[in-house]
Amino acid sequence: MKRDNINYLAVGSVVLIAFVLLLYMLYRLTGGVDENDVYTVYYPNVGGLGEGTPVTYEGYKIGSVTGIWPERTPQHTRYRVVLHIRDGWQIPQDSVARIFSEGLLAETVINIDEGASNEFLKPGDELQGMLGTDVFAAVNDVASSVNQMLQSDVRPLIENLNSRISHLGEQVDQRLPKILDGLQALVDTLQHAAGSLPRMLNPSTEAKITRIVSNSEEISNNLLRLSDGLLETRQATDTLLDQSNNTVAENREDIRRAITALRLSLESLSTNTETILRNLEGASHNVNEFSRQIRQNPAVLLNAKPPREEGIGNE
Q1: pTM higher than 0.70 for the full model?
Q2: Is residue 4 part of a domain?
């Protein structure tokens, strides 16, 4: 019996010591009543706050919330929040106590933004309070905006797109056989044309094409030389005009006689103009006949045979 009493006494002592240690730890965690300064701050909304909410000073923890009480005013209801802050901590008078949350899952704290005043609040004074950004409200507003956009813009767009796709599918189903038939006809035409290419690209045709290309290069070179000659002629003409102006000024009488002779020559030329025009008309008929034959049969340029020479021996 005596041994049981000793066991009960030991167990009770351990429990009492543990309880004292728990009280001491709670006392140290809360900073102790005598080691804290009390300040008051008012908020129109205390969402996320509660007793024990941390109080930080520029992010550094200096205390906690010990009480929240509503107070009714003629305009609205406000909430008085009591802060217990570390003893001796100096807070400028223009500092702001802002409700702050770092994220959706982070705890809400009251962060004191340090002011620039050189005068400090005294224990028991009122801090200026300001609501921070409500992350959940902001997310809710964004979700509402997105939902409204989906209802008013995206859904009609999807329905319109769906109707367009359905109509396009119907058009494709109706026209696809015709398109396939047209493609098959095109493939048959290409195959037929491919079979004709070997007959067209024979050695004789290739030789003719080579001669045409060579003649084209020669014509290009001749045109280039002609261009250079025209440039030189222009320069010579400018020089001649300058000289002519001087000559006209110096030989006016001789020029008058030359003009008279030129007029006589033109009168003689006019008498032969009719013959020249008849020759030009005949040449024009020949060119028209040649153009008509080319339009009817373009291959005559490649397969043309030289004209048969007629003479005494071929009669």
Answers
A1: no
A2: no
